[in-house]
From TrEMBL:
It comes from Hoeflea algicola. Belongs to the YkuD family. Pfam families: YkuD. InterPro entries: LD-transpeptidase (IPR050979), LD_TPept_cat_dom (IPR005490), Transpep_catalytic_dom (IPR038063). The active site is at 401 (proton donor/acceptor), 417 (nucleophile). This is L,D-transpeptidase. Residues 146-158 have a biased composition (Low complexity).
Length: 442
């Protein structure tokens, strides 16, 4: 993994696939990426949207898809000499200071529904102004170069409004680093806050969601930028899919498989995304057509740590995994029981792990749904009652499992078990084995 001491521009070029790691850092001289008017670039281009050319002065120029120069690199010392002293100090603080230790403001202070204007850049070609207006609809991080108001107490903190792109970038970073925010939807909710707190427990660092530059640098150094492109394949479009998921268990039992209902649903789950957010990123796209390119978030590799103890935190609605040394290595938002069907208390063990499980509905043992009073065998599938994974506990009929409704994790109730998103449950499955301790705490 690259370190913070590496130059931000080289990290961006590396993530775009323009330079190899040796090319990016062989020279050793710190470089920065600036806009055409000499300002430090905050609007980081996505992979595939720009190309790099060398001009007759040997500078690397960043060219967008309309063949317009949007930025270039200069040595850090040159940028510091040309930048006003106050601005230089502010950028230095933003790039190199540790994250603040103050607690993050409560979630209600974040606004995620009002979009912000995109960054203004000098137009070197006035005839392309109409094209530039079309790009205003794309997700971009806003200009955060202005110095924020000093933080005294959480109540006095001036919290900037965050765009969906900013929040999604933060969610992607957390998702890649073992502290799941649940579905990636561009919304600063309670699941994101829980992930931030877990990251602090793991690393000792507080991440400020408003520090877009820091988050983008972290992303570039840990797997690339937040968004990427994906081409829908013939296999993706072929399914098989089912028309809808019946709510009645007797109707579920009649199906051969509780498969996805559409390519959109399948791809949203594959990329850990909310379906509405995936649609919003790709307006007008027909997800049933093979060969269509779509914009998705760039998720990382699965966590491969070894978990020896799981804590199911009912009050915090979170599942946390610890290694043999007692260190937190994974955390997931969870739905844990309800008032009517509470989850167990005390300590149990993992008995077995089942992938692609079916579900046996028994109204005398589990719960009674409607008029169903007979034992029913419900087929497997991602839209099954326990999703794509079942981790059975030593407490009979209880387990940790996936869900057909990932956007509701941490926000609704369950029938006593512990629900995770399918992708989080699948990741957890790879880190546990029979005998792992599971403790339920209030």
């Amino acid at each position: 993994m690259l370190t913070r001491s590496k130059t931000r521009f080289a990290a961006v070029l590396l993530s775009l696939g323009v330079l190899s790691a040796p090319q990016a850092f062989a020279a050793g001289e710190p470089m920065v990426l600036v806009t055409t008017d000499g300002q430090l670039m905050q609007d980081i281009p996505e992979a595939g949207t720009v190309r790099i050319v060398i001009d007759n002065q040997g500078r690397r120029l960043v060219i967008d898809r309309w063949n317009e120069v949007i930025g270039f690199e200069i040595p850090t010392w040159q940028y510091q000499q040309t930048e006003p002293r106050g601005e230089r100090r502010r950028h230095q603080r933003r790039q190199f200071d540790r994250f603040p230790e103050q607690p993050l403001p409560p979630r209600d202070d974040y606004a995620t529904t009002e979009p912000q204007a995109s960054i203004e850049r000098r137009d070197l070609n006035p005839t392309t102004s109409s094209v530039r207006e079309q790009r205003d609809e794309e997700f971009r991080a806003p200009d955060v170069s202005a110095e924020p108001a000093p933080i005294t107490t959480p109540k006095a903190a001036a919290t900037p409004k965050l765009t969906k792109a900013q929040v999604a970038a933060l969610q992607v970073y957390l998702d890649r680093n073992g502290v799941s925010p649940g579905v990636i939807d561009g919304r600063m909710g309670s699941n994101v806050q829980k992930a931030l707190n877990s990251w602090y427990e793991i690393s000792g660092e507080r991440i400020d969601p408003a520090k877009t530059d820091e988050i983008v640098t972290r992303l570039a150094n840990s797997g690339g930028l937040a968004f990427t492109t994906y081409t829908i394949s013939a296999e993706d479009a072929a399914g098989p899919f089912i028309a809808s998921v019946p709510s009645d268990y007797a109707e579920k039992a009649k199906l051969e498989r509780l498969a996805f209902t559409s390519t959109l649903e399948m791809l949203a789950e594959r990329f850990h995304m909310d379906e509405d957010f995936l649609t919003e990123l790709n307006p007008g796209v027909d997800f049933t057509r093979p060969g269509v390119q779509i914009k998705v978030v760039a998720t990382g590799e699965k966590n491969t740590a070894t978990i020896t103890r799981i804590v199911a935190d009912k009050g915090n609605k979170q599942v946390r995994g610890y290694d043999a040394q007692g260190k937190l290595v994974a955390a997931y938002p969870a739905t844990i029981g309800s008032t009517a069907t509470p989850s167990p208390t005390g300590t149990y063990n993992v008995e077995r792990v089942v992938r692609n499980p079916g579900y046996t509905y028994n109204p005398k043992i589990n719960f009674k749904q409607g008029d169903n009073d007979k034992v029913l065998e419900v087929p497997p599938g991602p839209n099954g009652p326990v999703g794509s994974v079942w981790i059975a506990l030593s407490k009979p009929t209880y387990g940790i499992h996936g869900t057909p409704e990932p956007s509701k994790i941490g926000k609704t109730s369950s029938n006593g078990c512990v629900r995770l998103t399918n992708w989080d449950a699948e990741e957890l499955t790879g880190m546990v084995a029979p005998g792992v301790i599971v403790s339920f705490i209030e």
